[in-house]
Amino acid sequence: MPPPPLEDEASASYPPSSSSIHSTSPPGSSLLRTRRAKTIARTAAFVFSVISALCAGSITTFSLYGHILQSRLHYTQLQVNGVAIASSIAQYLPVSLLGYICDRYGTKPLSAIAAALFGVGYSLAATIYRRVDARNALDGSAPAYPGGESDRTYPLMVFSFFCIGSATCAMYLTAVATCAKNFGKGRNRGMALATPIASFGLSGMWLSQVGSRLFHETNPDGLRGDVDVFRYFIFLAILLVAVGAVGMVTLRVVDEEDLIEEAIEELEHSGLLDAGARRGGYGAIYHDGEETDDEGAALLDPAKDLEDDARWKKERVLNAETRRFLSDSTMWCFALGFLLMIGPGEAFINNLGTVIGTLYAPRASLIAAPTSPATHVSIVGVTSTVARLLTGSLTDLLAPSPQTQHVQVTPGNSSPYTRFSVSRVTFLLGSGVTLSLGLLALASGFIQNHGERFWIVSSLVGAGYGAVFSLTPIIITVIWGVENFATNWGIVAMFPALGATFWGVVYSAVYQAGAEDTPGAGAGGDLFCYGHQCYALTFWAMAASVWVACLMVLWAWKGTNGWAQRGVVI
């Protein structure tokens, strides 16, 4: 997929070296080469951002082997959810810290962190799985007893998936932040962001197919069985370490100094920075007309080199924008809505395999041949990808665009390239409704004993979940700018960890209660649940959560001192 159209800015002028003074090349050739090099760097960063995102979402294939952890390692449903919750928490809680590092120190550290954590996480998980599975095979089919091998290694398995979740966060954030900053100008910012975001959604599809088709076990009858978890984990470890290593070289922001200088001018004009203090007195930061930081004069030194001066300016600008972001009441309302939408989607994806297992009783499943988790992981991946690309492109075409890529402090003016416009918030609310319809279809019992209908649920949830995840960072860049995007997005993206954890626990509790009421479900010591009672209450509550989220977002947009009232172009 080609990158969005590039809009090269004039590069900064630097004192010519002695060799350039004596050069016989035409005066414009050096500028032309510089622009060409920047174009190549942006294109390479975009292409590898997409590749990184295509690989980063390996954790979304959890449903491919979650039920195997339950059957082969004899984990309870609560323990399986504990592993999934550890990865979900790690995908979101560290994102504000990682975003801070990304904005202030660049993308290279995040690529290194991702490579290291993916290597540790998947290698450790593979080792634990092989050891416990081999021990259980020797001991027969009896479940793990208190203090047994599964119990002793379970905390390590949780730790390994915490590492995997953190690595997922780092690799994904690096890819999206690189595109946001390199292509923040113009009307194509939505597509520039939507492409790596969509690729992240697509990663679950292709990785699940690789796992189920290339790294599978063979049943006694010669047919393809479940994924070989050990080999699949080793494959992911090697792949993701390599991707992270290459990302350290290719993922970089071009002309970041110009981005900061433009932000300085915008903030000076709005009064958030002291306009009369460039270099000699620059640095006083104002909020609501009052000085909030008086360290600037002490930090200024005429002898500072250009690199230190650029770093100092960047720190001041980003700190001012972070304060502005955190003091905006609509941001908190918007973030809470994001939490209430994404939490149910995360819980559904993590538990997709066990939900499918509840559709048929064991004997009936042999006759009815219920659908497989791999199929629906792929459906979620495809519909999520299509929704992300559609929302990115449609908002570029139909939504109004502000005439700035920086924070909208004063009422903005939209670019008059279309007479008909649809707000990005309208797209977001429609995506939330789509997500809730999928949850309702499952909660109603329409799918029970009809696994062939499950594609309706996975399609609606995948489309709604993917669109919400695409539109939220796009809205953040449009309202609060791109230079501090990783930090701002990191703050908002922390919230869904709470939602994923809460709904994962709720689902496990309802599942366990349903299993106790399922005749014969506990035969052999394993507790499995079959029937509508295993999940109905959970998904009714999830749908209600999404409706409340839509109301929260609507209030941030149309409520008192909301974006519409403040003249924010969105």
UniProtKB/TrEMBL annotation:
One of its GO terms (cellular component) is fungal-type vacuole membrane. GO terms for molecular function: transmembrane transporter activity. Residues 1-32 are annotated as: Disordered. CDD domains: MFS_Mch1p_like (cd17354). It is found in: Vacuole membrane. SUPFAM superfamilies: MFS general substrate transporter. Residues 1-10 have a biased composition (Acidic residues). It is a multi-pass membrane protein. Gene3D superfamilies: MFS general substrate transporter like domains. Keywords: Membrane, Transmembrane, Transmembrane helix, Transport, Vacuole. InterPro entries: MFS, MFS_trans_sf. The chain crosses the membrane at residues 43-68, 80-102, 109-129, 156-179, 191-209, 229-251, 425-448, 454-482, 489-510, 537-557. Belongs to the major facilitator superfamily. This is Probable transporter MCH1. It comes from Cephalotrichum gorgonifer.
